[in-house]
Each structure stands twice: as C-alpha cells, then as structure tokens.
Amino acid sequence: MAFFKKYNGTTDKRLLRLERWTWVLIYGGLLTSAVSYFMPANADGSLSLGLGVGALAVLAGVAMVLVRSRLHGE
Known about the structure:
Blueprint: H1 13-37, H2 46-70
Helix pairs in contact: 1-2
C-alpha cells in the first residue's frame, strides 16, 4: 500500500488543457520575474514591466490551481 495515491492525470481534454496552462503560467511567470530582476537598472521600463507581467502570470497560475481543485473530472 502506497503512502501517496498515484496520479495518472485526467482523460478529460478540457481539464488536461487547464492543468497544462496552469504550470506554464506559474513557471513562465517565475522565469520572467527572475530574468527581469537580474536585468540592468538602466533598461528603460522593461524591468518593472517584466516583474509585473511575471507576477501576474504566477497569480493567474495559482488561481487556476484553486479553480482546478474545485473541478471534478470523469
């Protein structure tokens, strides 16, 4: 008997698409924020734009995790 349940994913195409976009937004937002954070300060406005876009993407991904937790597949 395993301690954790094995998650094999879902067969519902809509939920699968939601799960994929969730992680793309989270990891993409983190990467964008990290790259923007280490840009030189003399970059004209792209520093704050990159940090803002990255933070919004991470927040959207976290919101999608919460939405997905309330949906039931099959």
